[in-house]
Every structure is written in C-alpha cells, then in structure tokens.
Write a structure and sequence with these properties.
Blueprint: H1 6-12, H2 26-29, E1 39-42, E2 45-48, E3 56-60, H3 61-66, E4 82-88, E5 91-96, E6 113-117, E7 120-121, E8 140-147, H4 151-154, E9 161-167, E10 176-186, E11 193-204, E12 209-220, E13 225-229, H5 234-240, E14 242-244, E15 250-261, E16 267-280, E17 286-288, E18 297-301, H6 304-309, E19 315-331, E20 334-352, H7 354-357, H8 359-363, E21 378-396, E22 402-422, H9 429-434, E23 440-464, E24 467-487, E25 497-517, E26 522-533, E27 536-537, E28 560-561, E29 564-576, E30 582-594, E31 597-603, E32 609-615, E33 619-633, E34 636-649, E35 670-679, E36 689-699, E37 722-733, E38 736-743, E39 751-756, E40 774-778, E41 783-790
C-alpha cells in the first residue's frame, strides 16, 4: 500500500474540516498555575507519580504534543538515566541506568529494557540488525519510564527498567475530531518533512462505549548523500563518483483503533489494534566524516544489480501489527483483569556494505588485476515475529491497609531471522580467483521459539499510618529452541548444515520497598529489587574452507549461556507542594549486574575471529537522578533533570576483553535537560492565546568499547558529548493552534553511534588519517517548520 503524501494532506486537510468541535486552548493543556500529577500504574494499580515510591518519569500526552515529541530519540536527556542506541529507522534500543543489551555484548540476546504498548508487551529478542518495534509516539495518554530492574512488575528483559507507551483511551463523554499537520525543512535535505495525523472519537451505546481512530502519515526527508564509485581510492572516488542525494529518507504510515465498552457496571472491555508501516529509502543516518563539504555523505560501491532491480541501493521495509483485548470485572475488593495480546512483524533491509565490509576485498583476494577496482558487497537482513501473550491478575484496591496484585503470565515468541552476505553485482570473472562458487558468500537462518510462564505477587501493607511496606516476587520459567541453518554458499566445498539447540532456566525476582509518607505531599522510600534477562543457545561455528587453520585449538564453550541478573539498591525522595506549583524527585542507587552475557572472541592464526556468548563479567553502577518542575509564575513552567552515572566493570573477563575498572560502553557520566514553557493566561484580542517554549538537552561523552581507544589505542576514539537546543512559538485561537518550531537550533552534529571504516583494506584512504574516518549515525540537522492543529 502506498502511503499518502503527508505534505499535500497536511496543508489541505485543515481547510476540509467537517464539524470540528470547539477547541480547548493551549492554556488548558499546558497548566499555567499547577503541574500535572500524571497517573502511573505501579503493580498495575493507578497512583499519582508523585506518590509512587519508585524512580518513574511520566510524560502526559499534552506535554508530548506541546513539545512535539515524535520519536524516542527526543526523550534523551529529558528522562533521567535514559540512553538510546539507534542506527536506522525501526532500530531503537533503550538503555536505563547503563544496562545495555547493545552490540558490545553477544549476538541473540533478550532486551535489557522491557517495552510495552499499554499492557501489551512488545519486547522481542534483539540482534545486531533489529530491536523491538520503533512505535510512533502520537496520540498517547502518557509515556511511563520505570528506572531500575522491574522484574516483579514486567518480567524478563526489565533488568534495566521498562518503558510503557500508553495510548489515549476512547472518551465516552464527547465526540471530537482533531487534525495535526506539520511542514518542515531540514538543513542538507533536498525535500521537506511532513506529518498528518487525524484523531476521531465517537461514543456509542448511549454513552457506555466509545471508539477512537488515529491515522498518521509522516515523512522524514533524507539528509545524507551517497558517493557511488567503483574505485578503491577515496581521492579518485570523490573526483569520478556520482552522488545519490538524500538517500536516507523514511516514510511512516500508522493506524490505531481503540474501543472501550462497559456492558454493565461490573464489566469493562477494551480493545486495541495498531498497524504501522515503515519504508526507508536508506537504512540509517550513517555518514562518513571525510568529505568536508558541509553535507554528510557515505560511500556505495557501484552495483549494476542494484540499479537493475529499481530499488534504492539501501532500503528498509518494516511492518508491524499489534492487538490486545483487556477484560475486567469488578469484585468487592477490586478487579479481576485478563489481558490477551498478539504481535506480528515482518522486516527486511538491504545494506550496501562497501564501507563496513570492504575487508572482503582483501580477504577473498579480489582486485586480481591490481587496478584499484572496488567490488560491490551487500548485506540482506530479515526478521519475522509472531508473539502471543496472556496475563490474568487480581487487583486488590479497596482495602484500607492492604492493596496489591497477584497473577499469572504466559508468552510464546516465534522469531525467524535471516542473514545473507552477497557479492551480487561483482564481475563473475573475479569469483574463480577468490575461490568462490557464486555471488552469495554466506546465508543463514535462525528459527527461534521461546515459551515463558510466570506467577507474580505484589502487595503493600500499611504498618503505621505513615509507614508502608511493599513486598513482591515473580517466579519465571522459560524454555527455548533455536534451529540454526548456515551455509557458506560461496565456497564450493562447504555444505550448509542445520542444528537444533535447546536452552531453559528458571528465576525468581523479588523486591521490597519501605515508604514513609509525611502528612504533607512528601515521601521517602528505600528499596531493593531484582531483574533478569533470559539466556540462550550457543550454536557452533560453521566451518568455512580454508579459514581459521587452528580451529582445533578453540577453547571449550558452553552449549548455552545463562540469564544475567541485576540487583538494585535505592534511596529516594519525592515532594509535591500544596497547589502543585513544585514537583521534586531525587534518587540515589547502586546497581549490581552479575553473570553478564558477553561476547567471547577467539582470534585464529589467520586473524579471522570466532565468537560466542558467555557469562562472566560483573559490573556496578552508582548514580544519582534528579528531576523537578516549578511554576515560576502563572503561565510559566520550568522543568529540569540531571543524571550522574558511574558504571564500571568490577571483575576481569579476559576471554571477553574486559578489564576491571573499565567503564561500561555507551553510558555517559552526565546527562540532563532544561525546559521552559510560557502561555498567556488571557487572549490578546484577535491574536488569541500566545505561547512559547524552549529546551536544552545534554548527553555527556560515552566510551565506545568496540571502536574507542580501549579497543584501538592508535586510532580509536570515544563518542563526544553534545547539547541540543529547540524551541517553538505559537498561538491558539478558537479551533486553531498554529506554531513555528525549530529543532537542533545550533545544528549540532554529534555521532550517536559509530563504526570504524573496516574498508581500509578495500578503500584506499590515501592521505586521510584512519583515526578520523568513521561511519557515524548522525543527529538530524537543524529543522524548522510550521505545525497546525485544528479541533
């Protein structure tokens, strides 16, 4: 299905509005005199964030819309302790308190941060190529970010924390339609950005039910160029190569439907369906930093096969469908709740791999003529996911001294991942010289199945009128089966093989919290809690003819790697002033991470490597998190946050290349944010109600364990810190809300992630210094635009 052009629709729809209801002014969605105390669901029971004894940041939908938070990367700095690893659309890993499941560790691992859409878990196994779905942040009731292990509440994969995206619920009390549109321009992009979102809400059954439909189309213009060349020498390539402009654009189309129905006073039924399509004309915001012309660019190897198939050199197709049904029945002491959910996802991407895998040119003996010809290479990745989850729980909410939750949970995940390394497009005459039978060098397929069963209990008892004790535990058992097929098809004397590998384990994750509540809106809490991540199987390496001649010297490796565990000790305090003019939350913690799943690498005599995943390293994180909001004056709100983290390994793991005292990868010591919002309390004549806002977000320097100085003392470097400034100014008049905005005002160009130019063997750098040549994932350059909302 071809998505509609959001640029055309975004400009046209506001003038085609049929019966929009009268708008609430922006002064109602940005409270001018008090801060909103957002409800969160601790142990699945709604409580105000300021009265919840846990480190949780809650951002309501009004604030998400006011600050134009469109994707996860905009949460960096705003949410204490949160870091995000991203390399391409559809690939986002959340890291909380330094617990990172990224590429610094092993291959197929459980995520380190649990992801939820409402009550529906959407977390899957993470690989180097795909992570959990990259969901739109439009039309949400709130985002909840729970920091620290949440094993009791959210189960496996919540060893660093959990993120819940809670969609807006249908409203049975009113009928309305809202249109949002944006039109913007990004520096270095040759086309505009655009967004159109339509939300409609309709009650039915005499006010006992309502349906809500959200349709969103979004286009992000590309801003990275690609130099297409068939020459190994970069100096020659820059002179003779052609250029593909703005290759890394992306289009998103999403539909979400929600129904809420109360057939009687005792029953409620909520249904949710969401479908999202992502099409990337490039596979990421990757660029080489060697061209010096003010336009980010990377290098593609000229590939006749790619040009014949009519698709971009690089592309990403990612489709995901989610559905859940929640049925609740009131009982005298609370509720009985059933949540059933399914996830279906299919994604495929193709990378031009000259910059990343150009060492194939050397290792396979290409360029037999010695004339500096660059041979094209490509990677093709795919994933298919089917996941079913079922939770049944009882909520005790009516007791004066005791409240809590008890329940059971079951999940089945089926995930198939495919990988292909290809030399398609290369001169066939070169294959014989390299000992290859054809253009496909390697192909693999993993069929993974995991079944998880859990039982949990979480309860709070009032020991004294102002003193509460919370105790909880979750017992989890998982069973896995991995069927791996791998074939080095390019080598005529190497046959493919298929292996079936099991893995299973059981874990119990307890937690305990003691909370003192003052008579004023102040609380102090001290707690300890655990989280864990499932392990997996260790497939043996497929032997490739002529590679790793000392393979018989490989050290013994386990058939499976086990779960790793996090224990978090925390002391925190929260205060909310009478009248809601001041919110303050601070937490100090120590987090012990044991049996870390780490990549073990064996280097062969021919410098090829063989990898597997083991358990061994230990790490400790100490940190302080602070966030607050204050109403400086009626209509003026200031919010701030700051995080300090000291995350280091505390045990040597030489087999994984880890030394005690080394900082954990990709974890900044400092991060923070500052934002100010202003809205007039009265309309200014015909102008309407003006408002304005500005924000600054900061992420400190991050050590890079793969490509930094620890791994490569001569040419490696870590990821530098950066700050991002944004702002907006607008006016609300009647049904209309119009704003001008700017993101990344000072055009910061930090490397969010980086890869070394492995292709120093395949690409001749000439006079360029190897320590200055990196493929970097870049932040979107300065973007300005206009946003229009019609109600």
């Amino acid at each position: 299905m071809r998505s509609p052009n959001p640029l055309v629709l975004g400009l046209a729809v506001p003038f085609l509005v049929v019966r929009p209801v009268a708008a609430q002014a922006r002064r109602d969605t940005l409270p001018p005199t008090r801060l909103a105390d957002v409800q969160v669901e601790a142990a699945r029971i709604a409580t105000p964030a300021s009265r919840t004894p846990a480190s949780v940041t809650a951002i309501d939908g009004a604030r998400l819309e006011a600050t134009r938070t469109r994707d996860a990367i905009q949460l960096i700095g705003t949410v204490p302790g949160l870091a995000i690893e991203t390399a391409r659309p559809g690939f986002t890993r959340f890291t909380l308190r330094g617990v990172n499941a990224g590429g610094q560790f092993g291959w197929r691992q459980g995520a380190a941060t649990a992801m939820y859409l409402g009550d529906l878990p959407v977390t899957t196994r993470t690989t180097f190529f795909f992570a959990s779905p990259d969901l739109s942040l439009g039309d949400l009731d709130r985002v909840e970010v729970w920091r620290g292990p949440q094993g009791t509440q959210f189960g496996s994969s919540a060893i660093g924390g959990a993120v819940r995206f809670v969609p807006a619920r249908p409203d049975a009390g009113r009928t309305f339609t809202t249109f949002d549109s944006e039109l913007g321009a990004t520096r270095a992009a040759g086309a505009p950005n655009g967004l159109l979102r339509v939300v409609t809400n309709t009650p039915f059954a005499a006010g006992r039910g309502a349906a809500r439909l959200t349709v969103e189309s979004r286009r992000d213009a590309g801003f990275v160029d690609a130099l297409v060349t068939d020459r190994q020498a970069l100096d020659v390539a820059r002179e003779r190569g052609s250029v593909q402009r703005d290759y890394n654009g992306a289009r998103r189309l999403g539909v979400r439907g929600a129904v809420a129905y109360a057939p009687s006073a005792m029953w409620t039924i909520d249904g949710l369906v969401q479908w999202q399509q992502l099409r990337g004309t490039g596979t990421g915001d990757l660029a080489l930093n060697v061209f010096g012309n003010g336009r980010p660019a990377t290098v593609f190897g000229r590939n006749p096969a790619f040009e014949r198939d009519g698709r971009p050199y690089e592309f990403l197709d990612d489709d995901v469908a989610l559905a859940s049904v929640t049925v609740a029945r009131r009982v005298p002491a609370g509720r009985i709740v059933s949540v059933s959910g399914v996830q279906a996802r299919r994604a495929r991407q193709r990378d031009d791999a000259v910059a990343a895998n150009g060492n194939w040119v050397e290792s396979y003996g290409f360029d037999p003529r010695g004339d500096g010809v660059l041979f094209p290479t490509a990677n093709v990745f795919g994933t298919g996911i089917r996941q079913f989850t079922q939770e049944l729980r009882a909520e005790l909410t009516a007791g004066s001294r005791l409240r809590g939750t008890v329940g059971v949970f079951a999940a089945e995940l089926r995930q198939t991942d495919t990988l292909q390394y290809s030399l398609e497009g290369t001169d066939p005459a070169a294959f014989a010289a390299a000992g290859l039978a054809g253009p496909i060098v390697f192909e693999g397929r993993d069929r993974f199945r995991e079944r998880e069963l859990a039982a949990f209990v979480d309860g709070t008892i009032a020991l004294l009128p102002q003193l509460d004790l919370t105790l909880g535990a979750r017992a989890t058992q998982y069973r896995q089966r991995l069927v791996r097929f791998a074939n080095a098809t390019g080598f005529a004397d190497t046959a493919g093989s298929e292996l079936t590998l099991p893995a299973n384990a059981s874990r119990v994750t307890p937690r305990a919290t003691l909370t003192w509540r003052a008579r004023t809106a102040t609380l102090v809490y001290a707690g300890v809690g655990d989280g864990f991540r499932t392990g997996g199987a260790n497939p043996p390496e497929i032997p490739v003819a002529g590679r790793c001649p000392d393979r018989t010297s490989l050290p013994a490796r386990p058939h499976q790697f086990g779960p790793d565990r996090v224990r978090n000790w925390e002391l925190g305090a929260k205060h909310r002033s009478t009248g809601g003019r001041l919110d303050l939350a601070v937490a100090a913690f120590r987090l012990d991470w044991t049996d870390i799943q780490a990549a073990v690498t064996y280097t062969c005599a021919d410098n090829t490597t063989i990898n597997w995943t083991g358990n061994g390293p230990r790490a400790r994180t100490r940190g302080v998190e602070w966030e607050s909001g204050v109403v400086l004056a009626p209509g003026t709100v200031v919010r701030g946050s700051a995080t300090w983290l000291d995350a280091t390994y505390v045990r040597n793991a030489p087999e994984a290349g880890i030394t005690a005292g080394t900082r954990l990868g990709y974890v900044p010591r400092w991060s923070g944010a500052l934002a100010i919002d202003w809205v007039a309390l009265r309309a200014r004549g015909r102008l309407g109600v003006p408002y304005a806002g500005a924000s600054w977000r900061y992420q400190g320097a991050r050590p890079d364990p793969n490509w930094g100085p620890a791994a490569d003392p001569e040419t490696g470097r870590d990821l530098a810190g950066y700050g991002i400034v944004g702002g907006r100014i607008g006016v609300v008049r009647g049904r209309w809300d119009v704003a001008l905005f700017v993101d990344n005002l000072f055009d910061a160009a930090p490397a969010l992630e980086q890869l070394p130019l492995f292709a120093t063997a395949g690409l001749d750098l000439g006079s360029l210094r190897a320590d200055r040549v990196r493929e970097q994932v870049l932040l979107r350059p300065r973007t300005v635009g206009i946003a229009v909302r019609v109600r």
